[in-house]
Amino acid sequence: MLESISFGRASSKLIRQRYSEISIVYANTWPLFAQFAVTKACKKLNIPLVLHVQDIYPETLTDRLGLTNPIIRALLMPIEKYVMNNATAIVAIGNKMAEYLATSRRIDRNKIKVVYNWQDESRFKEPEDVQKNEYGFTFMYLGSLSPSANIEEVIKAFGFAGLRDSILVIAGSGNSRESCLKASVVYPDADIRFVDAPSDKVPELLASADVLLLPLKKGVGKYSIPSKLAGYMLSSKPVLAYVDPESDAADIIRNAECGWIVPSGNIQFLTMKMQEICSLPETALVLPGKSGRTYALKHLSKTANLEKLADLIRNNER
Q1: pLDDT in tens, 7-23
Q2: Distance between CA atoms of 32 and 49, rounded to whole angstroms?
Q3: 2-118+302-314: what CATH class?
Q4: pTM of the model as a whole
């Protein structure tokens, strides 16, 4: 919150100082206070504002607050509605997010444009260049180790599965690393490995997996799409998603025909799905991997989305 307030003040100050040089402001910044400060400055100086929304606030915060949810939401929602209603254009990262914003904020749906978060497709190898890993059958999660990622339940499902000649690789860092390590200790017979994931090694790490894991806590990913999904799909590997079935991420996986969806919170189903996937012939994993890459190149790549975003900004300049 303090960072949001501080960055908002700094951004607002710069806009006021240099407003005569500014034809438009593109803001992909912290909710809610940084967004509010930038929006207020742009409105006062009549500068067009394109606001990029990555997460829906205050709901992402208040949905975790239990009994205080209605009170905190009532205090913060006026800030959010001011921002949404005074932005010239809004960029959402998924169709469900766009629909939810339009309905809950009572703004014109045409004001909201969907631009998917993308990955630079040139970093990822073509399917025929992807090498088989040297270990057993590999499930991999690569990304931030955070509470919302729900990795502990993935560890539990893998531990329950009792899979021989199979490993679970958890690549990345974050404030849930210690709890993930503790969760893995409970299953000494399961081969669970923790590795670092420097950005320059991400494509290589993803290429070493057989199946890539996309877990999110129930309700967390309903209106957002983890940016790692694009990288997963560009890696030509199938995706096992442990998410809300009605989420944008689930829709993408279904449309791309690139993997499997297990409802978040159903550990038993996830265990069974891991067992089922491990029993599949290798050829059964190739087709969804290729299908995912084809879809990602068309919808989730830098080529597909950067120009779309640039056009939106250019078309709203004063």
Answers
A1: 999 999 999 999 999 99
A2: 15
A3: alpha beta
A4: 0.87
